[in-house]
Amino acid sequence: MVENNRVTKIAIVGATGTVGSFIVAELLKRGQHTVTALTRASSPCAPPSGVQIATVDYAKPETLVAALRGQDVLIITMSVRAPKETQLQLVDAAAAAGVPFVLPNHWCPDVADTQFGEDILLGPTELEARTRIEELGVSAWVGMVTSFWYEYSLGFGPTRYGLDWKERSFTFFDEGETQINTITWPQSGRAVASLLSLPLEPETEGGPSLSGYKNKFVYVSSFCVDQKAMFESVLRVSGTSRSDWTIKHEETTQRYADAKKRLFAGDRAAFSTVLYGRVFFQDGVGNYEARRGLDNDVLGLPKEDIDEFTKIAIERAEAGIGHDIMSFMPPMMASALRADEELLYRIRAFLYDLRNMAHDRASERRIHSTKDELYLGAPYFTPAEVAHIKTAIVNQAYRPGCDQLPTVVEFVRLCLAGFFNTHKSSGYVQPYDLAPIYERAFGISVYELQDAQFLFRLRRQGLRRTQYYLRQQ
């Protein structure tokens, strides 16, 4: 409900998540808003004191609408490993409930530059959400351009900002002199709380207002720095000198191109290099302060001490604290693996062998030659294919109410945990016990394993690659 020309009722998805927790803390600190966390009944995480809870079921859209009715703003913060449809469900529910403002799941660099957004692979998903909001015509979106989180990016490996703390090495991209904007988690929280504390309509001629940001981006930042400045901060905080460090250099455009090639070949670990590598191009796209200007002053955001947050980054690096960059990556669904006909054949062969090894010597031999505990490896798959398969996202939750869809490996382990709970006496899983689990994960039916053409090739060629595939490699 709008009171005194201010929005007061804020709903948030992801209240206990990384950036969500900082947003909630700042909103509560100001005491001007009623904050409601949308959460599933199965969620193990409890929001902080002072936050109201609305339990929702994404399988029942009416629960989302009911939770959002009467809210002024919906903030969406969640892993992009959540199904893409989840954000669109929330957008639809916000429109049905008449929510005036939506802050989409947009906590990244300047994807208003559509080519850049496509280059880092995040842009199309964000554009789809914004377009949906505009087409529904009820809510307005406000996009938060924050760039990368400084504490995380500096402290979690050389593929981000170049620091490898444990190896005492620093990799400069080109000469390390490309300036980019970057933000801290607390500044992200302050930016959102300040934005939502603005008057709905200007109170003075030309004054700031929340309505002034309808269907627009908000550009905020903590620091505009190059890698050399980051490294100097590391030296100050750590009390080390340059001679204590190994300095490396990588050419940025080649680094990005190589990583993109690896990524599309199935090495999903290359995503962080694609994401960060593109921001350090010398076209200035990472320095949106120079291209767009900042809203820091309008929002009253404070200046910050970079050394304070470098210290936090180093502490995180020493403790090994971080989360997998895959959580930022648009998910590759397990069903999409079917697009590669050769890989699909080998997945089918793998499933056939799991089911038939008890009475098929060739199947038994192939299964027993694998070294991986879940049998995902040679002779069925190359290392790149294994990485591709293990990190693919299963198209169904292990059980209703899961907050995000699992990877293939997570899905298998969850199913095995359930298997052991119902087979306590055996304590051992046979390969054929895995067959129905993998079939669910890949969305492959038993009937596909009985296809005459497939069986003819398997019995005649086994796992030999086709000549077409070998030529492609």
Automatic annotation (TrEMBL):
Domain of life: Eukaryota
Pfam families: NmrA (PF05368)
Domain NmrA-like: 9-116
Keyword Cell cycle: no
UniProt-recorded Gene Ontology molecular function terms: oxidoreductase activity
Keywords: NADP, Oxidoreductase
Coiled coil spans: none
Protein name, entry field: Putative isoflavone reductase family protein
UniProt organism field: Eutypa lata (strain UCR-EL1) (Grapevine dieback disease fungus)
